[in-house]
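Teaching assistant here, posting this on the class forum so everyone can see the example we discussed in section. The complex has two components, and the goal was to see what a joint structure prediction looks like when all of them are supplied at once.
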Amino acid sequence: MNLSRTLTAALLAMAIVMPAWAGPTLDKVKKDGVVTCGVTTGLAGFSMADRQGKYTGIDVDTCRAIAAAVLGSADKVRFVPATAQQRFTLLQSGEIDVLTRNTTWTLTREGDLGFLFAPPNYFDGQGFMVAKKAGVKSAKELDGATVCVQPGTTTELNLADYFRTNKMTFKPLVIEKLDEVENAFFAGRCDAYSTDRSGLASSRAGKAPNPDDYVILPEVISKEPLAPAVRQGDDEWFDIVKWTIFAMIDAEEKGVTSKNLDDMKKSDDPEIQRMLGVVPGMGKSLHIGEDWGYNIVKQVGNYGEVFDRNVGPASPLKLDRGINALWNKGGLMYAMPIR
Amino acid sequence: MNNASRVRLILLQALVLGAVVAFGAWLIHNTLTNLESRGIATGFAYLERQASFQIGETLIAFAPTDTYLRALMVGLLNTLEVAILGCVLATFLGVAIGIARLSSNWLVRTLAAVYVEAVRNVPLLLQLIVWWDVLRVSAPAPREAWLLMPGVFLSNRGLVFPLPSFTDGFHWDIPHLVGFNFAGGHTVTPEFAALLAGLVVYTAAFIAEIVRSGIAGVAKGQGEAAAALGLKPWLAMRLVILPQAKRIVIPPMIGEYLALTKNSSLAVAIGFPELMSITNTTLNQTGQAIEAITLMMVVYLGLSLATSGVLNWVNARAALQGR
């Protein structure tokens, strides 16, 4: 299992060995008629395949929105499940067009790995989950704890930083596969499980034998802006991914939803008219069809709809909007003007 | 062979060699150009950078402020620890099972045969996960740990036992419960135990077959002669049969030791921080997949060559001289 995974990574690395892959991403996507996205191997709310093999989640919807904007159909997508370890090589080697895989935007990932990050589709922060019966109320009480964690993540680094800053010791138990990390934690092998708080909520809702037996501690020990990433050197494609996210946020701000979309086409608001292609020009600037914004909202929905459907209070994850609310409602979701 | 065809042969070999070298150079050149054009960092300078992550089990002191190079050393030492212990234990178990396979006792013989067939035919990765699950699930949490002997505890965090300590004169460093876990003494984690048990049990099955065929390869007359001299069966085995079987057994054993060392990389699945696991983390934090994987391949190659070097020397010494 793991050997094959390393082999895959090695093979993907070998893909870099081949002559420079030609032509910008947009041409390739149009030619293939499909957008290929790297997603997680299974994290409820972000990307998870159901029994029919249908993927759902915020990251999945981001990918579908890109396909709707570029190809006019949200279903023209192909998902490549990637472990934390494989994801960067997949993108570097050109196996995927965009990485929509709850990945934290960091300096070295742009500088050293050669990526560019689009605006975050979820602002997260790292936390801890413990068993209720351990009686722990704060992360400050975790001195000496064994902490389950996945490798190759910013989580692993933040964890070391946090314990060092607070002069506490801990033993990491690093396991590659998410399922095995969760199994180890819920079997009591670790005192705490640390990852992004959305991920903790997702594991608790999806994998805990009894979700009420586990608590997520109040401390948020890091900033984790989860954002889609593309390769450097293809600004046209980068623009498309970036403005797809902005369109979803802007649609929510303007009250445009997948339900009222056709009425909204008659709106007098010039921004809505530009976004939905009633007044043409925006699509041309991005080198895609004028109905790009319409297709995104029609087929996928605005940001608020996507959030509620996948991780919101009505979903199994029961996350509130928090800092992911719109900027004018006290959150961080802010779209640049579509003009 | 005439001169013309000899020249042609040399020319052909030179051509093939040239093509291989050119292909290699082309690959390396392409890789470097492509990496650069995509803005991806290259080179081994990352080894000197601060690792920033923590490692759960270490034989030498390690802190997140240490370098990636030291982290890899920690991983390598963990690999060596499990490989050396594994080879020694697998040899003992394998020889015992191998002899049992040839026992005149039906039950012993059959049990050994069942062991070999069952273990050889189940994938090692699966066995490792089963061992790990058993160790993890069957033992209680630290606060309810089983007291096996005074000072020796078994919990789902592993086996903890006292260690002699020589600071401030001799005394025993006895484990005691502090907060979540035990402090003091020495801990064998479920991950290490599962990996070691899995590798030993798996490799021993192969070694048993080598030992069995080695014993079967010793001329039958040797055993009969030993019996005729009045040696008890066990003494005949130890003094007459095994020393001769050793010569047959050593060469194929080299392969098993190499396999055990390389198989230890499956530990990533169960969370033991050996070389492969540390390389995984390094590869991810630095993004330098090509360098990290190359380095790991070189290290495994070095380990394998060193192992076979030592065993070839042992083999040369064990071989019959001057016949």
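For the discussion questions: The first helix of chain A runs from residue 2 to 17. Residues 120 and 227 of chain A are 4 Å apart (CA to CA). Think about how each of these relates to the inputs above.
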